[in-house]
Amino acid sequence: MGIVYYTRYLEFFEQARTELLSMIGLDVTTIENSGTFIPVVVSHCEYKKGAQFEDELIVISQIDEIPKSRLRINYIIKDFISDEFYVEGYTIHAFIKNGGLPVRVPHLILKKIKKYFRN
Questions:
Q1: For the segment 7-35, what is each residue's pLDDT rounded down to a tens digit?
Q2: First to last CA, the chain
Q3: Could you tell me if residue 119 is inside a domain?
Q4: Which residues, listed in sequence order, are joined to residue 90 by a DSSP beta bridge?
Q5: Mean pLDDT over all residues of the chain?
Q6: Phi-psi domain of 2 (left: phi exceeds 0; alpha: psi -120 through 50; beta: other)
Q7: What DSSP state is assigned to residue 62?
Q8: Contacts of 109 (CB under 8 A, 6+ apart)
């Protein structure tokens, strides 16, 4: 059929999220070594057009608001050459400690994210 299977887009989200966090100084290993985990609690994906297997895609990920108790990351997947949209979506992440107890956004994470917002 040649169309990218729909669940692959969530894998693209995961890779883009990992790279976004790393770019702002929040690699997942450091976050987890601090005793905090950020599991996905909601994922949403709107499929505009199916990508073909050999299409060159670009994934844009961004954090649009400073998190309080949850972190939302937005994603756009589009064709690298034509700029045509394929997918839009987001993931929402909780902040939990070992044992699964929910917590507010840890200072380490909040400090790094706030650097990218205007006061």
A1: 999 999 999 999 999 999 999 898 999 89
A2: 49
A3: no
A4: 44, 74
A5: 93
A6: left
A7: E
A8: 26, 31, 36, 38, 67, 71, 95
- Give the count of domains, the chain: 1
| For residues 34-63, average pLDDT | 95
CA distance 64 to 86: 21
Record the tokens describing residue 23, joined without a space.
Answer: 């770019």
Query: Which CATH number does the domain housing residue 83 bear?
Result: 3.10.129.10
**1 within a domain of the structure (yes/no):** no
Q: Which residues contact 65 (CB under 8 A, 6 or more apart)?
A: 72
pLDDT digits (tens, 9 = 90+) for 81-114: 999 999 999 999 999 998 889 999 999 899 999 9
Tell me, what amino acid is at 77? I
